[in-house]
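User: Can you predict the 3D structure for this chain?
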Amino acid sequence: MRRPTPAQFAAYQQAFDYFNRLLFDNTLPDCMLSFSRRRSSSHTLFAAGQWLEEAGSATPEISLNLKQLSEDEPIEGMAMLVREMVHLWQEMHGQPPCNGYFNREWAEKMATIGLI
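Assistant: Here is the predicted structure, written as C-alpha cells:
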C-alpha cells in the first residue's frame, strides 16, 4: 500500500538535506517542513521559532503552499524551498531584518547561490 503522506514529507526532507549540503555547506539546522493551503499572496513562509520543544528551545519552520506547488513546475517548488532556506541561513548566520522579510544580505545570499 502506498503511503502518500510519509512519501511526500520524505521527498521534501531529502530535498532540504540535499540543498543544505550543496548550497549551505550543511550549516543549516533541522527545521519543521510543513504544507498549507492558505489563501494569500505569500506562497511560502519562514518562521524562526515556531515549534517549541520541551527543553525551551525552538525549531524553525518552513511552510510551503500546496496550491502553488501543484500549479508550478517542480523546479519552482524547489526554488521556493531554497528561498526559505536562505531565510533560515540568515536567521542562523546573518542579520535578519527587524522590520521586514527581505534585506540586502538576503538578496546577496540569493545571488551567491544562483537564485535572483
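The first strand starts at residue 32 and ends at 36. The chain is about 50% helix and 20% strand.
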